[in-house]
TrEMBL record:
This is Exonuclease V. Pfam families: Exo5. Belongs to the EXO5 family. Signal peptide: none annotated. The lineage of its organism: Eukaryota, Viridiplantae, Streptophyta, Embryophyta, Tracheophyta. It comes from Rehmannia glutinosa. Coiled coil: none annotated. InterPro entries: EXOV, PDDEXK-like_dom_sf.
């Protein structure tokens, strides 16, 4: 494998040379159609922060994310991409930001549509890494309040520490019965399909893994294990940063006025202690992109030991403790849809090129 790596590094195909990505400031979307602070109709916020331009490199162990990305907080998508194919994830980190296909863009548009059924979106401009994180926490507080008041919320971002690393993610949908005192929130994930068929087992397994990651993170927050001190020690942000006037105005309207990033993170920490533990039964929904018709649903029971084992395994790769693994032989069909197939050590095209390099 070391020979493969050395040859691969020497090749540096022109299509994948760039490891630096231009990032420009982007407006972020913000504002649930129901009130949040007091469950009135005076406006809750639907924030959609764009992570990237201002996120600072943070502390922690040396990892591929530190080497190939500016911002190095893990995301759930880092793990789901690794679960699909660690080698493909390695190429993504080494050569390019993961690009969305046409089908992925259609799926994103559908999620925005679903979100707007329960929220009103407004645009805000961000000028600092601190404001990016402030909007993440603000959106989570607002959406959690919406869930507790109305029994439904969508696109709820969460951030917590899992297995020693910090991870962020966005839960598609959470439902909770308000008529039962012992009702647990149910986590849902909606997947859109180009073809009017249910996905195969590898895709369903990846969806179960993603939703299980959200469940794991939600329950960690609900157990009160979020520590603002540990968060600031890790991300190296200015806790005394004065929030933008827009953010301060929103927090005041929602009932938790915040002047600094630390104020908002403290509200987030307090909010976590109010969250109920989520239901162990999770739900995956599959829709046809063409008309949003329901293709099917899959209900499954959360397995905490399985998900923690999977996260630990992928962390060994993401933290640089071992090399990336390839998909098993029975799943090599994935390579037909991979943009790196011609240069991957598992592909015949790369093998022939390697043999040529070794012999010259």
């Amino acid at each position: 494998m070391a020979l493969f790596r050395a040859a691969f590094a020497a090749i540096r195909p022109a299509a994948f040379l760039s490891t630096q990505f231009r990032r420009t400031a982007s407006p972020i979307s913000l504002l649930p159609k129901r009130g949040l602070a007091g469950c009135t109709e005076t406006g809750g916020q639907g924030l959609d922060p764009v992570v990237g331009p201002f996120e600072k490199k943070i502390g922690g162990p040396e990892s591929f994310l530190h080497r190939f990305r500016r911002g190095s907080v893990f995301s759930v998508s880092d793990f789901t991409r690794a679960e699909w194919c660690e080698q493909q994830k390695w190429f993504d980190l080494r050569y390019s930001k993961h690009e969305q296909t046409k089908a992925m863009k259609a799926g994103t548009a559908r999620h925005v549509e679903l979100e707007e059924e329960v929220t009103t979106r407004e645009k805000f401009h961000i000028k600092s890494a601190e404001d990016v994180w402030a909007l993440k926490f603000l959106k989570c507080i607002a959406r959690a309040n919406q869930l507790l008041c109305n029994g439904l919320t969508r696109e709820l971002p969460i951030t917590c520490r899992v297995e020693g690393v910090w991870i962020t993610g966005t839960i598609d949908e959470i439902r909770m019965s308000l008529s039962r005192s012992n009702g647990y929130p149910t986590l849902l994930e909606t997947k859109t399909r180009v073809q009017a068929t249910l996905p195969g087992e590898p895709q369903r397994r990846n969806g179960r893994f993603q939703l299980s990651c959200y469940k794991c993170m939600w329950d960690i927050l609900a157990s009160g294990k979020f520590s603002s001190q540990e968060f600031f020690d890790y991300v190296k942000l200015d806790r005394n940063h004065i929030l933008s006037p827009e953010i301060r105005e929103i927090t005041a309207k929602l009932g938790f006025p915040s002047q600094t990033l630390e104020d908002l993170v403290m509200y987030y920490e307090n909010m976590c202690g109010l969250l109920p533990r989520s239901d162990d039964q999770l739900l995956l929904r599959y829709e046809l992109q063409e008309d949003q018709s329901l293709l099917g649903e899959e209900k499954f029971v959360y397995d905490p030991d399985l998900i923690k084992g999977q996260i630990k395994s992928h962390l060994e790769f993401l933290l640089g403790e071992r090399e990336a693994r390839y998909v098993p032989p029975e799943e090599r069909w994935k390579c037909r849809y991979c943009k790196y197939a011609s240069i991957c050590p598992a592909g015949s095209g790369f093998t022939m090129l390697l043999l040529y390099i070794v012999t010259i």
